[in-house]
Amino acid sequence: MIVRIHSLLRYRVIGGTVLALLFGILPRASAQAAPEQQQKQEPRPGDILQLQSQTPKSEATSGKTGKAGAPFDLTGYWVAVINEDWRWRMITPDKGDFSGVPLNLEGRRAADTWDPAKDEKAGEQCRAYGAPSLMRLPTRLHITWADDNTLKIETDYGTQTRLLHFHEAPPAGQRSWQGSSLAEWEVGSGPKRRDRPSGPLDLKVTTTNLRAGYLRRNGIPYSQNAELTEYFDLIPKQPNGDEWLIVNALVVDPLYLTERFIVSSNFKKEPDGSKWHPTPCSSR
């Protein structure tokens, strides 16, 4: 059994996830379930997740892009599994709770001005639903191909849509919550780098042209010049049928952050969209 543990482990992002998966103790509840409602089950031999390096497709296939070059299938319905940072992700944290976010002085000043009523009045209830924070929310994802070179990610929580463009992104237009995303398949076993926290086979997405928003729902800011880099890793289907998606995200924002803000979010595949329940953005 080969476990792909990357350099990001030193930042404590995927370490807990890998150990939880390895020993079969990851919660089996949906993102909307409270901790006391999550039922822990003793792992059975057949249920223990076997983490192994994924085998790239042929060189010919890996030279392609978009849908034709996809080394794995991300399409379908996925639910966020909140097994860490629960108090910042499932509920709105208290004003002034900056724990875990490398805010500089300017970032703290901006966060201290957070006023949800003011956001509502200005029609900016979606400030915490932008690309840098969207995948951290207790949401479901619906991933489809909009066309051969555009992967679409929809969320029911906040009713947002992200478009991941392969080959080249369309000309930058007006800034938006989801910004402009350029995607590429990273296939092969090239050298590991500190700035590449993922493994030898993943989807890398770089997002810019953002509208200023919040990293968390209590007003922790990111500026319009922030840059988001994500690595989507698919864990091979397990003997019990479970499929897991891990999204590692790095936010760089010199205006408000002293260093990169790095997080990892876990999603479990669902059989269909029967639990899909779109809700609007909320500033509270």
Structural overview:
By secondary structure, the chain is an alpha+beta fold. The chain has one domain (7-270). It contains 6 helices and 11 strands. The protein has helices at 15-22, 59-62, 86-89, 105-111, 116-121, 131-134; strands at residues 76-80, 140-147, 150-155, 161-166, 180-187, 201-208, 213-214, 221-222, 227-235, 244-252, 261-270. A 9-stranded mixed beta barrel has the order 1-2-3-4-5-6-9-10-11. The longest helix has 8 residues, at 15-22. The protein is globular. The termini are far apart. The model is unreliable at 1-30, 32-61 and 193-199 (pLDDT under 50).
Report how far the terminal alpha carbons are from each other.
45 Å
**Within the largest sheet, what's the order of strands?**
1-2-3-4-5-6-9-10-11
Strand elements, count = 11
Number of helices: 6
Work out the strand percent.
Answer: 25-35%
Q: Work out the count of structural domains.
A: 1
Q: Major sheet, described briefly?
A: 9 strands, mixed, barrel
Q: Which stretches are poorly predicted, pLDDT < 50 over at least 5 residues?
A: 1-30, 32-61, 193-199
Q: Please estimate the helix content.
A: 10-25%
Rounded to the nearest angstrom, the radius of gyration is: 18 Å
What structural class do helix, strand and pairing data support?
Answer: alpha+beta
Q: How does the overall form come out from the CA principal axes? A: globular
SSE pattern: HHEHHHHEEEEEEEEEE
Mean pLDDT, all residues: 81
